[in-house]
Amino acid sequence: MLVPYNKLNVNMMIKILFVCHGNICRSPMAEFVMKDLVRKAGVEDRFVIESAATSTEEIGNEVYPPAKRKLAEHGIGCKGKTARQMTRGDYYRFDLLIGMDTMNIRNMTRICGGDPEGKIQMLMDFTKRPGDVADPWYTGNFEATWRDVLEGCEGLLAYYSNKKKD
């Protein structure tokens, strides 16, 4: 069971790993949007936020240029981020592993050997419209992905802030 931010021990860090197929579009967008939101909320010292892939296809590659441009449009940088693959050890290192779609969740659960602690969640489950985050790799619509990622990250921060979202 996830614990709301204001119920955590003052010495606890919240460690979040965002995950998508290649770690070049959706999950790095979520990583850097969430980092921006916690910084603006003045709680960045309470969070460790990273992202990873379920596949090996893009390992070592930078954030996909259209995703990088979409972040930059909103004043968010992602310099130095390169794709890495999620490992079984990430399950024990992070408090929450957030997938962007149902296939990611299936692959994350396989990589982790299950989800006995209920740490694997969908990003859009933190919104009023659960489901998959739009995949711009196939749609080319980075604006739709931006909206999903922003709404999901705001919902996640609200969850940890124990604030009700309208």
- What portion of the residues fall into strands of 2 or more residues? 5-15%
User: Treating each run of at least 4 consecutive H or I residues as one helix, how many helices?
Assistant: 6
- Assign a percent range to the helix content: 25-40%
The topology string of helices and strands comes to EHEHHEHEHH
Kindly report how far apart the N and C termini lie.
23 Å
Task: Offer a few descriptive terms.
4 strands; 166 residues; Rossmann fold; 39% helix; 6 helices; alpha/beta; single chain; four-stranded parallel sheet; disordered N terminus
Question: How would you characterize this protein structure?
Answer:
The protein has 166 residues and is α/β, with parallel strands linked by helices. It has six helices and four strands. The chain has one domain: Rossmann fold. The protein has a four-stranded parallel β-sheet with strand order 2-1-3-4, with helices on both faces. Helix 1 packs across helix 6.
Furnish the topology, listing elements before pairings.
Layout: E1 14-20, H1 26-40, E2 47-53, H2 65-73, H3 88-93, E3 96-99, H4 102-112, E4 120-122, H5 136-139, H6 142-161
Parallel strand pairs: 1-2, 1-3, 3-4
Summarize the structure.
This protein has 166 residues and is of the alpha/beta class. It has helices at residues 26-40, 65-73, 88-93, 102-112, 136-139, 142-161; strands spanning 14-20, 47-53, 96-99, 120-122.
